[in-house]
Amino acid sequence: MTSKELELQKRKTYLQISGTACSNCRKTSRDVGVESLFRCSRCRMSAYCSKSCQKEDFSNHKHFCAAVEELHNFEEAWYSCNEESEWNKRQIYHMQLLSAPLDRELSSYERNAWLYQPKCHVCFRTSKDLQNYQPLIPCSQCLIIFCCSQEHWTQHREKHQTLCKTYQLMINCERIRYQDTSETLWAPEEWDESAIYPPLPKDWNGYFKWRKNSQFIQLDTLCRVITNSLSLPLTILSALERFYTRHNLRSLEEMVIHIIGASQYEILALMTFEEIMHVLPNIKILRIILIGLEMPQQNSGIPLSCCSRCTEANRKRICAFYPMSYHEYGHSSNYTTPHITVGFNIELEENTELWEPTIEFLLEKEVPCILTSYSKEEAIQDVKILKSWGTKILVGAKENKWGSTMPLLEPQKVDKFYHNNFFKTLFQGRS
Ligand SMILES: [Zn+2]
Ligand SMILES: [Zn+2]
Ligand SMILES: [Zn+2]
Ligand SMILES: [Zn+2]
Ligand SMILES: [Zn+2]
């Protein structure tokens, strides 16, 4: 298996977390033609289609499984909570209890499995809260939303009816994302050469039209999945338009981009950064530097392959990884001044202290910067924090038209969806 496949294997889909799909092979009971999947008898969380799948998943699963079993046996932890805020509190408490026997923080996959676990959408009880682990009843259409009884479904049905379509869209997007193990979902090598950018087209539809890909003109499921990764280079391009003149952008031969707080999201979408060279074909060398604690081993420059048109035109794409904080990188000998620094969904408002030295550094260097966030509320918070540090804001908490159109589910809210890079804030230096 390639490292990307291994990474995808560790990640669990919404269907897997809800127990509707096998925790190992991702097939549903319908896919394998069995009545229903069976649950791991210890943790009662992971579901499997067969004994062999359970066996294959065991090494991934065993430590978390044992921790969950221990938590199930700790009856006091299962006090009843029948409203959203209490449920959230209990979830956080449970995650603390789970990390004790593991002797480490939960991985992001384990956190997700816990936070998205099935619960009744009316009374917030899990199967463990019911007698004898009585199974919850799934919505027959999306299969990932549950109620504990028909009575609670009667109460919840109407509210769910309006959201069920979005849940289904989310699951369908996920299916495409997890099936695709090829390098990227986006590589059509055609575009309308009579149109010169910047400026960028006015929206995603215009963009897909420029790229001559008629199949993407409607915002269908596949298209939404693609916008989730294309959102990264397009958001950068739109920010560059704000910081540099068109003439300037069209004449650049080398471009350096720093991505701060980089995570799996950027790594999985890495191939799509080539799009910057398609929009600005004068660029001969594109350097993408990913800096963040989640980055793999330090590497100061790996050449990535390009599409045939870029290869012919002798364009090169180089990528580097620095597993450290940005200010640490900034003070190292590897630092080179970027044309732009980007932080995708870095949640400044949640980790303010952690980010302060990084932002200080960026303000000092007067680097053009863009931060994106999942929601307007977060973006407004970001602007407030940045202003308190004396930042000169150029665009504050504005909706990003190059945000992802793929819905994702908020882990600690009920029925709330979010999109990557939905809002943006641009700044440079101090005011
Ligand atoms: Zn299976
Ligand atoms: Zn288990
Ligand atoms: Zn209920
Ligand atoms: Zn549904
Ligand atoms: Zn190319």
From TrEMBL:
Pfam families for this protein: MSS51_C (PF20179), zf-MYND (PF01753)
Keyword Cell division appears in the UniProt entry: no
Keywords in alphabetical order: Metal-binding, Zinc, Zinc-finger
Residue intervals of the MYND-type domain: 22-65
InterPro entries: Mss51-like_C, Znf_MYND
Molecular-function annotations in GO: zinc ion binding
Protein name as annotated: MYND-type domain-containing protein
Annotated organism of origin: Diversispora epigaea
